[in-house]
Amino acid sequence: MTRAAADAVHLHGSRMLIGAGLLDACGPELHATLQRRRLAIISDSNVAPLYAARLAAACGTPSPTVLTIPAGEASKTRQQWSRLTDELLDLHFGRDSAILALGGGVVGDLAGFVASTFLRGIPVVQLPTTLLAMIDASIGGKTGVDTRHGKNLVGAFHHPVLVLADPTLLGTLPVEQLRNGLAEAIKHAVIASAPEFVWLATNGRAITRTGGPNAALADQLVRRNVQIKADIVARDERESGVRKILNFGHTIGHAIETLSGFAMLHGECVAVGMVVEARIAARAGIGDPGLPEMLIDVLRQVGLPTAVPAEMSGDAILEATRSDKKARDGLVEYALPAKLGMMAGADRGFAIPVPDAIVLDVIDSSR
Ligand SMILES: NC(=O)c1ccc[n+]([C@@H]2O[C@H](COP(=O)([O-])OP(=O)(O)OC[C@H]3O[C@@H](n4cnc5c(N)ncnc54)[C@H](O)[C@@H]3O)[C@@H](O)[C@H]2O)c1
Ligand SMILES: [Zn+2]
Hints:
Blueprint: H1 2-6, E1 9-11, E2 14-18, H2 22-25, H3 27-34, E3 38-44, H4 47-59, E4 65-69, H5 78-90, E5 97-103, H6 105-117, E6 124-128, H7 131-137, E7 142-147, E8 150-157, E9 162-165, H8 175-192, H9 194-207, H10 215-235, H11 250-259, H12 266-283, H13 291-301, H14 314-322, E10 327-328, E11 331-334, E12 337-339, E13 342-343, E14 352-353, H15 356-364
Parallel strand pairs: 2-9, 3-4, 3-5, 5-6, 6-9
Antiparallel strand pairs: 1-2, 7-8, 10-11, 11-14, 12-13
Bound molecules: nicotinamide-adenine-dinucleotide (NAD) and zinc ion.
């Protein structure tokens, strides 16, 4: 706890603490940040039974109210937002209250959106419980809900006042969810840190073994990835420039995710997307031709897919990338790696238009 506090990462006024045991020991930190605010824990139906009582106990008296949503993306809706805000109003929560978001990215995004709008905005503390939420979703202040027109289309920027990540909570996370987060960790390594890539290639198998990563591995994994994402977001809050590099693997990845009808996990789609986009970079003559094979090697180690699903045609994938918000003037723009740890196109805002013929060709050779 003290070591975690000493290592705090700061971003837009949020303190981010990472440490084993933080869930049970977060009382003093919460009180120092929120003083005597009235607290509501928002969690989901998987996480609440595992961890809400421990968080409530750490908060002390008066005990926080616990509001629970059904687990899963289907809960990230305006209906759940209405239900939660109504419940808070029914319980007479006022401007002197705060939200504790305890869960994965679904809870974090929804509870963050509740906090950003409730009585025009109250503080939120993010307590991420998935690897993806610890190293990605809880950092950067994006909150929101899904709509029938697409994911995350209604939302707000609302930075948490505090992020508390206890990597020991990953011990109960199903392995496919661990892999889901690892895809983003591998992305972080490619875009910003060659040493992190080497570390993942060395430890990937141990991280995904049955029972989850041991405490030391989980701590290092979370700590370094939080630092990478926080550094990138700090350099660019509103996605005008450098933050675009976080889209690596996501242009093709989102297209595959949509075409799978969201049957594939986001991380699985990003894994395939990274392989395809690294090949596009090599084919366009701006990326290291050795990178795709290095990526495939580390993705296989952690059990992530590397090939485009056979049933998805190149045309369908290309068409789906066009409807992605990153498409401008017909040519789809990509965030492409120059080499391990470095993205191409710094002089062009890291957005590189690629001719359709190259994309189609690469997709066809990636099955
Ligand atoms: N705000 C952002 O910047 C940002 C970035 C990336 C992703 N996201 C969003 O995050 C969401 C995905 O987040 P996610 O992958 O964490 O999914 P999730 O929140 O649905 O969690 C995945 C599953 O794991 C369960 N779970 C969570 N923690 C657990 C634990 N410790 N032990 C056992 N089970 C646990 C959950 O109940 C759920 O069933 C998406 O909605 C995505 O849009 C947001
Ligand atoms: Zn992602």
